[in-house]
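Duplicate of #3305? Posting structure anyway:
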């Protein structure tokens, strides 16, 4: 069963639900080649390609329903600048975190902060699902 995804807030970040419409704003940030030093992905070829990828993930789950996909765009509270994209995938009783922090924001702890928020969120919804008859 797919949980309802919510926006979140951490100390320095607003985490809004990632949508296909974010692609226009984020495309240039995703074109920074240094982002791909440790990823097996390529720079998106177009805004449309990035938007289609985001839109596919909006389903919130894999086509077979075995994976839950949750994703957010993180923004600095103080500037509203996009910091990165943060994701958590749940498969049965395991959760996998992925994130892309845009280069301007490397080294200041945003990945850790967003990851902590995602873990707390998943634990909360997991507990809620278990406790709800």
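Output from current build:
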């Amino acid at each position: 069963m797919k949980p309802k995804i919510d926006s979140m807030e951490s100390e320095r970040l607003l985490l809004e639900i990632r949508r296909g419409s974010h692609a226009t704003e984020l495309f240039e940030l995703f074109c920074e080649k240094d982002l791909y030093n440790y990823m097996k992905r390529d720079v998106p070829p177009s805004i449309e390609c990035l938007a289609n990828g985001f839109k596919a993930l909006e389903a919130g789950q894999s086509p077979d329903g075995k994976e839950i996909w949750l994703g957010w765009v993180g923004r600095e509270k103080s500037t509203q600048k996009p910091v990165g994209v943060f994701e958590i995938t749940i498969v049965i009783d395991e959760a996998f975190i992925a994130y892309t922090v845009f280069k301007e924001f490397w080294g200041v702890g945003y990945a850790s902060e967003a990851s902590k928020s995602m873990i707390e969120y998943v634990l909360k919804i997991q507990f809620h699902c278990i406790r709800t008859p």
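Confirmed duplicate; merging threads. Confidence is low (pLDDT under 50) at residues 127-133. The helical segments are 23-30, 47-57, 110-131.
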